[in-house]
Amino acid sequence: MPKSRRLLPLLCLWMLCLGPGLLYGEEFSPYGNPFVWVTVGRTGVKAEVVRSPGKVYLGLGYRQELPEGRGMLFLMPRMETQNFCMRGMKFPIDIIWIAQEKIIGIAKNVKPQFTGTLCSPQPVKFVLEVPGGFSDRHGLKVGDPVKW
User: Fold this and answer.
1) Is-contact 56 49, C-beta < 8 A?
2) Distance between CA 39 and CA 45 in Å, rounded?
3) What domain range includes position 30?
4) How far from the centroid of its chain's Cα atoms is residue 78's Cα?
5) How many domains would you assign to the chain?
């Protein structure tokens, strides 16, 4: 069998597994999460996308910081009231609840010491976490559009 025919299955596997991200310039965080640009209001955020139960559960917990202009976008499995906590958090965050491509609620400057549960004000499928105070610094408010 010619060498090119033996390499074809490997090339196909590579294209299916790794190729799309490399071909389209997809970038990944050091934690293995893909980045996506999210525009909230008029402000851009480079957000890590998480959707697996384990990564959603961990979230930003145990990290030392979240730089300005960065965030984590949670793709939840179902459109429902979402509950978040500050388990393992080491810095304050704003939690932005998203439905129908707009902000439907913001939990502002939640401190790492907060021991309660934060619930979305209505069912959502998307949640964006950004550094504490981000929403106020950028004038974000309920009703602002969200795009990615």
Assistant:
1) no
2) 6
3) 25-147
4) 16
5) 1
Q: What is the CATH number of the domain that holds 84?
A: 2.60.120.1140
Output the pTM of the full model.
Answer: 0.83
Instruction: Say how far residue 146 (Cα) sits from the centre of its chain.
Output: 13
Could you list the mean pLDDT of each consecutive 10-residue stretch along the chain, which spans 148 residues?
48 41 70 97 98 97 97 97 98 98 98 98 98 98 97
Asked if residues 81 and 120 have their Cβ atoms less than 8 Å apart, the reply is yes
* DSSP symbols for the chain: --HHHHHHHHHHHHHHHTHHHHHTT--B-TTSPBEEEEEETTEEEEEEEE-SHHHHHHTTTT-S---TTEEEEEEEEEEE--EE--TT--S-EEEEEEETTEEEEEEEEE-TT--S-EE-SS-EEEEEEEETTHHHHTT--TT-BEE-
